[in-house]
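Follow-up to my earlier ticket, as requested here are the two runs.
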Amino acid sequence: MRATSRPAETPLKGAKRVPVQPRALKTRAALLAAVEEIAAAQGAEAVTTTSVAERTGVAVGSLYRYFEDRDALLLAAYDATVERIAAASVERLAELGAETDVEEAARLLLHVYLDEAEAIPAHTALLRAMRSIRTTEEEQDPANVTIIGERIAPFLKRFAPDARLDPARLHFMNVLIGNLVDLYLVTPGTGEERAARREEIEAHMLLALRRAMRPGRAS
């Protein structure tokens, strides 16, 4: 699943270093919350530095202390939703016993991730905005796809401790499933259509997972 948020010491393109003072952290969080509120109600196109400043009572000049521009605001807000979704997914996985079959756990991870993403009103709008701002190269750069080290690798180590893992195939799996998940989230459809799309993503995910756990030429 998608994970493009970076550690605080590695700012996003266009973003300023995350502050450490409690008051500054509170202000930054309020700015991101305002972006989500506007995007959920009116769409990401309604998000401007002026609209965010007005909603939070923060002067536009002060806003630029935290974010370089509108794009940086949108990207940071998107990444914040991804981090919440991923954290909720991992929390659900923590409830499973270590004896759980790895594919069963992977299915749960996928569907919890999708459920959590759909439960955040602004996520799809922010996802569309992110796609228009970040290049494909930036999105797929292994240095930026931190979910491999932070989410997938520990997940596999827990539920498939004896598996040999191929880092290149893990990266391919993350990019593949991330793009399928994003397509699912931005594509409207009936409940039946969306359920069918989930099944398709699950099938691709399980195939990629099996290959990532079996390095070398596929039999």
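Run two:
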Amino acid sequence: ITALTLVLFFVSSVFAQEIAFETGTWAEIKAKAKKENKLIFMDAYTTWCGPCKWMAKNIFTDQSVSDYYNANFINAKIDMEKGEGLEIAKEYKVTCYPNLVYIDGDGKLVHRAAGSMETNAFIDLGKTAYTPEKSFSAYQNKYDAGERNPTFLLAYIDLLSHTCLSGSSVATDYF
């Protein structure tokens, strides 16, 4: 083992890999996602949000999370109370934090969830965003098209309960 190998090992151990968040404008982030044919993962956060800080410190810095998200998504971390975040929050109905939103390169919502979660659940959330029949938008589109099967409605209500969006009208349809 050479001295250089030891130094590289030490440096890689000390500096944990983390999700690489883009620093460009929202338009630039969408353009990059479209060009690379990837979804955008948007961490919709606020500076005062405790669960947001916990996710940033404990989940976004996890090696398995960063490996998966950096390979499969264009990642954006946007403060919903500043700059472009104010309009983005309105557009995607972000009302609680953290809101974990998956968007295509055209700006269309694909999947979403809210709140903090452990590593494996967060990776699974990202995988669900790439599973069209399980995504939030698939459920929403089926509901909007008139699907009212009780099993479907229960699943949709459950999905809505993890987004901070109201499921009261869906529950009314169920009952």
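The only thing I checked on run two: Strands lie at 21-22, 39-45, 73-79, 99-103, 109-114. Let me know what else you need.
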